[in-house]
Structure formats: structure tokens, C-alpha cells
Design brief:
By secondary structure, the chain is α/β, with parallel strands linked by helices. The protein has two domains: about 60 residues, Immunoglobulin-like, CATH 2.60.40; about 190 residues, Rossmann fold. The protein contains seven helices and 16 strands. It is globular. The two termini are about 25 Å apart. The model has no long low-confidence stretch (mean pLDDT about 95).
Length: about 280
């Protein structure tokens, strides 16, 4: 067992991360739960956002543990926000990134923005790319570095950058430092390394313009995902259509949370994505 979505409904989701079962809020799960209460009682821990906010634990919930999924190992731990250090709905992206880079006839330089705990960074490095990993949170960059070491990538060609995304992109343009592939998963709201405020609806058009400027003359892909309400697949596609000036193919869709066995009756909608890709690449 690696990752499994055991059940969902009534605004909650029940997930298994390796041997650890957790119950967490899930506003998208508006349907009725399919499993009985005895299954939910197996959870090692439960997170609440209202009333008794935080984690309640039982069954010896560890402070940290390792999850391996789609060939990538993650150091997991419970946080004050209910996150664990992995977004399982992005697993199809990691598989696609690794396979696409591995199939390239030339070395690729990859830029991963808002890179969180490094799933896409590790997938790109496993595929053989030179990677630049950027996040405004020093703690998250350190967490991603630990994940890279866990995957035997401590000596891989990965640059670890703690910086505001817009400022970094502007400097890279001035330096003439271009990339064959760019990955971005911007938050709805965030703060840069020096307190800069990021609001996706105000920043996204300029951000994607900078992304387009930083692409090489023969880019492989731009993978854009987000969890912001209102950013539908159609909206995401049209943003890339306006921003990416290279000839290519655009694919868009929902990110769906499923278990590794795909036996879960109901997948959970968990954000959207749009992918611009060169004609030699495959679809996700």
C-alpha cells in the first residue's frame, strides 16, 4: 500500500499514506460517505478546521514517516494547516514529467515554481533534467531538499532557490537564463521571501508572460496547475493560449484525487490544470 483514498463524503476524506490513515476536511466531498463508521474509526489522526482546530490523534500517529508513490519518496509530517508535505492529486504529473524528460533527445533545463515539497522537481531530476526549484518558503525548500536526499538525488543538478517568484523571473530574463520546461502551481494567496503579497487573480497574466519570455526557442512544455475556485479548465486553457507564443498543443482538465489502486468509487475534484506541450510529447 502506498497512497489510497479509502472514502470521502460529508465534507471529509479518509486517506491512507503508506501505513498511516488520516481523516481531513474536504469541501468538495458533498456526497454521502460510502463506508461505515468503523472504517473511519481506523484513522490514526483527524484534522479539524473549526471548533477544536488542529489534529486529534490515536493509534500511535508518528511525528514523521515516509511515503513512496509513483517511484518518489516523501518525508511526511503533520502540520498546523492540515497538510502533510504531499499533494497526491499531482501524481499523474510526476509520472508524465519523468517519462517526457526521459524520452527527450536532448538534455532539458526545467524550472519548478511554487515548488512546495519537490514532487515535480524530483520527477524531473529522475528523468535526467537539470532543475531549478523555487519556493518563497525557506522551510519548504529545506523539506524538498530532504526529499531529494531521500531519493538519492543529493548530487543531482538541482538549484534550490528561496525567493519571490516574480523577482526571480525578472532577474533570470536579464541574465539570459532560459528553460526548456516550466512548471508552476501558484497559490490563491501567498507571501514572498521578503513579505511580498501574491494574489493569483492579480498576478497570473504577468506571471505567465514572464514564463513565456523565459522559454527557450524550442521548449518542451509548460505545466500550469492551481487549486483556486473560478480557475476552471477552460479558463486555464485560455490563459495559456494568450500567454504561450510557441506553436504546440494545449491540454486541460481537472486534477482528481484517487487511490493508487483506483478502486475508489468517487474521485475527488482537487483543482485544475492546463498543459502546453510540444508536438513530440504525449498527453497526460
Amino acid at each position: 500500500m502506498t497512497y489510497e483514498l479509502l472514502d470521502s463524503g460529508s465534507g471529509r476524506k479518509l486517506e491512507q499514506f503508506q501505513d498511516i490513515i488520516l481523516a481531513r476536511p474536504c469541501s468538495q466531498a458533498v456526497w454521502t460517505r460510502q463506508e461505515n463508521e468503523s472504517v473511519w474509526q481506523k484513522a490514526h489522526g483527524s484534522f479539524e478546521r473549526v471548533e477544536q482546530k488542529g489534529w486529534s490523534t490515536k493509534h500511535n500517529l508518528p511525528d514523521a514517516w515516509v511515503l513512496e508513490t509513483h517511484g518518489i519518496k516523501f518525508n511526511l509530517k503533520t502540520t498546523d494547516f492540515g497538510h502533510l508535505g504531499v499533494f497526491p492529486e499531482q501524481r499523474p504529473f510526476w509520472k508524465w514529467i519523468k517519462e517526457t524528460i526521459s524520452s527527450s533527445t536532448r538534455p532539458l533545463r526545467v524550472l519548478n515554481l511554487f515548488a512546495y515539497s519537490g514532487g515535480s522537481t524530483i520527477a524531473a531530476a529522475q528523468g535526467g533534467a537539470e532543475v531549478c526549484h523555487l519556493d518563497a518558503s525557506k522551510g519548504m525548500v529545506q523539506w524538498a531538499r530532504e526529499n531529494a536526499e531521500l531519493n538519492n538525488l543529493s548530487k543531482a543538478p538541482i538549484r534550490w532557490i528561496v525567493e519571490d517568484v516574480t523577482k526571480f523571473l525578472q532577474r533570470e530574463i536579464k541574465r539570459g537564463s532560459f528553460y526548456d520546461a516550466i512548471i508552476l502551481d501558484p497559490p490563491s494567496f501567498g507571501r514572498g521571501a521578503k513579505g511580498e503579497i501574491f494574489k493569483i487573480e492579480e498576478e497570473i497574466n504577468n506571471l505567465l508572460t514572464l514564463v513565456n519570455t523565459l522559454l527557450t526557442n524550442d521548449p518542451a512544455f509548460v505545466l500550469f496547475s492551481c487549486h483556486t475556485p473560478g480557475f476552471t479548465p477552460v479558463a486555464m486553457k485560455q490563459l495559456l493560449q494568450q500567454s504561450i507564443t510557441h506553436k504546440g498543443i494545449i491540454q486541460e482538465g481537472e486534477m482528481l484525487l484517487k487511490g493508487d489502486s483506483h478502486k475508489t468509487p468517487f474521485a475527488i475534484p482537487s483543482g485544475t490544470f492546463a498543459l502546453w506541450r510540444a508536438s513530440w510529447t504525449s498527453s497526460i
